[in-house]
Amino acid sequence: MKHCKNPRVMLIISMTVFGTLGLFVRNISVSSGELALYRGILAALLIGGYLLVTKQKIPFREIRKEIPLLLFSGVAMGFNWILLFEAYKYTTVSVATLSYYFAPVIVTIACPVLFKEKMTAKQWICFVMSTLGIILITGLGDLSTGNNHFLGIAFGLGAACLYAAVVLLNKFIKKVEGIHRTFLQFLAAILVLVPYVGCTGGITLSGLHVTGWVCLLIVGVVHTGVTYCLYFSSLKELPGQKAAVLSYIDPLTAVLVSVLILGESMSIMQVTGGILILGFTLWNEIAPEKKEGERSC
User: Fold this and answer.
1) Residue 69: HSE in the Cβ half-sphere, 13 Å Cα cutoff
2) Residue 24: other Cβ atoms inside 10 A
3) pLDDT classification of 181: cutoffs 50, 70, 90
4) Nearest-5° angle of CA 133, CA 134, CA 135?
5) How far is it, in rounded angstroms, from Cα 151 to Cα 157?
6) Which one, of 116, 118, 156, 113, lies nearest residue 134 by Cα?
7) Are the CB atoms for 14 and 227 separated by under 8 Å?
8) CA-CA 20 to 30 A from 195: which of 1, 6, 211, 242?
């Protein structure tokens, strides 16, 4: 990763790849917990190998006080994957992804509680309008959507809550570099997912066909290992606002994949809801530069 000269390109690539996740998950016929476990194992092996080859040692002595936070965030990350994969099963990829992108709004609401900050009028507007977007996406009043659609959105919002927890926990982790942090979080996720999978159905890899195996390897190695490395490496080099703007390539790609490749339809109401969520969360993230000494959540 050190040889890449263009962090913007790295972030664009990582966001585009993240946006295609649902397409591959749909072709892997294992439980969501099992898939999350394999994703963590494959990614941890890849990143662990990268750290070995580049001779990057994890400074355990310096970070020992933050290890509990890393463990909790890793557990949240693992179950976040499970809920997101479940969302893909019960509703369209576009709706699941847009529900998942409610996470920044949850972070905005949680920050005043955790960091004793007051919410601005702009943040309240973004919260209200993004919440309206979620209501429109659920298709309230449209009985044809069915219970599975609502369950998928519930899983997507649950995944958003857990992802928000990961983001907030990471704000308290100061001494661990991005790639080391990700590697340790993957290990923590694996530790909790192993007993979870054992208690909820066990290993069922024998039932996978060739397509399933290929998609599983792509999700574990490309979508998780390689893409997370690109993502965190680019974040270190880009200003926050540029990173915020480029991160919206992920849900936009997911919507295009859902509609153009998977043939999943979106109603005008859902499109409007998606625009409200993405538009107002983006507006919330793009803030004026803070003066030195001011804290930004």
Assistant:
1) 17
2) 19
3) confident
4) 90
5) 10
6) 156
7) yes
8) 211
Taking only the tens place, the pLDDT of each residue in 225-242 is 888 878 877 876 777 667
Global pTM reads 0.83
Mapping DSSP to helix (H, G, I), strand (E, B) and coil, where does residue 117 land?
coil
Angle, helix 103-115 to helix 268-285, in steps of 10 degrees: 40
- Taking alpha carbons only, the member of 30, 18, 49, 16 closest to residue 216 is 30
CB-based contacts of 17, cutoff 8 Å, min separation 6: 222, 223, 226, 227
Residue matched to tokens 């043939």? 263
Sorted by where each begins, the domain ranges of the chain are 7-285
Looking at this protein, which amino acid is placed at residue 218? I
DSSP state of 172: T
Looking at the chain, how many residues does it have? 297
Three-state secondary-structure class, residue 248: coil
Q: Which residues of 81-95 are buried (b: 16+ CB within 10 A; e: fewer)?
A: bbbbbbbbebbbbbb
